[in-house]
Predict the structure.
Amino acid sequence: MKTGNLQASFLGVIVSCLIFQLHISGGEEGAYASTIKATFRERCYACHGALKQKAGLRLDTAGFIRQGSGDGPIIDTSSLAASELIRRLESHDPLQQMPPEGTRVPREVIGSIIQWIGLGAHGPEGEEPEVDPTMHWAFQPPVSSLNPQANRNRHRSDSGQSLCHKLHHPISVG
Ligand code: HEC
């Protein structure tokens, strides 16, 4: 065996060990929960979350990320080079780069995302999507708990009833 081959297979063993270790320690989902999700929340959810889904894409759960956009998948767990998500994060073309404005997502985070995709892009069990902030009660128009029409009718019939009562029983006892 040539030294190059030996080195390559040695590297292969190290990489598989690392991946295996990530699998058993849950590091994969750990990186997603601690770094990747936080980055997406800060840099992407405004346009790809509960409120807006630009390009039909949500990034607020691993499930949505695997689901892709209106145009199809944005990640390919078998061919990282084909992942639209990575291409957009790495692009410096103003018409392609994501996020469209502001500083780029740091290289180390992109590295973690690549690794996470390679491991299947899983999120924590029971991961909940973000809640649409406009659904919060503070954003809802005030609604009276009483139906005004019913209220009016009730008053009318009440006063009507008591007037009839008074006319028919001018001297009512009790
Ligand atoms: C200010 C709004 C905005 C922000 C913030 C934003 N995007 Fe986008 N994104 C868009 C728009 C608009 C499109 C559709 C136009 C296009 O393809 O460039 C898009 C498209 C995409 C696409 C391509 C979808 C497809 O299949 O064509 C990906 C992937 C993407 N965004 C990822 C991200 C990521 C990751 C972030 C955060 C790092 C992010 N975006 C932040 C507005 C935004």
Notes: The pocket of heme C is lined by residues 43-44, 46-48, 54-55, 57, 59, 69, 71, 74, 84-85, 88-89, 98-100, 105 (CB under 6 Å). Residues 3-25 form the longest helix (23 residues). Confidence is low (pLDDT under 50) at residues 20-25.
